[in-house]
Design brief:
This protein is an alpha+beta fold. The protein has helices spanning about 1-25, 175-180; strands spanning about 30-40, 45-55, 65-70, 70-75, 85-90, 90-95, 100-110, 115-125, 130, 135-140, 145-155, 160-170. It has a single domain (about 30-180), classed as Lipopolysaccharide (LPS) transport protein A like domain (lipopolysaccharide transport protein A fold). The termini are far apart.
Amino acid sequence: MVLILTITLFACEGNYQNVKKLSLSDGAPIAEGKGINFKYTDSGKLVTNLLADKLLDYSNLNFPYKEFPNGIEVRFWDEKGKKSTVNSDYAIQYENTGLVDLRKNVVLITADSVVLKANQLYWDQKNKWVFTDQPYQIKFKDGSYNDGARFDGNQDFTIFLSRKNQGVQLIDKTKTEDVK
């Protein structure tokens, strides 16, 4: 009798795991969140604040991701407490790669007043790099601007590589005269 009970218990545990998997319809998220206000701190300081109306968590899939179908607003603070923000009407974050895909009405405003607008923007969180292969517009705090077909650069825009672009770049004559 004890042997039959033991076999039944272990068989039920294995079946329970299979039933959990079956209870989710194919492609359904494992969790859904509404009114998201996620705050990430480091050493007691607020570093990132993510706001979203809706979150769909697909971490149950072989290639896990989180989807924000109604858009997001993310606020970032640097070491000096300066805030940057990014907004988009749709976003998806891939867990394995650390890549964030921002789509539709993407607006990024850095702490240094750089304003970037694009239809799509990728953010590589691990390498701290942003890029797009879609048209974009960027305005710098000195009044310079750039309209282009695609770009890539680091997330603080100290490195910025643009392709097929046009715009106005302001050059400080005193700095160019010193180069002679």
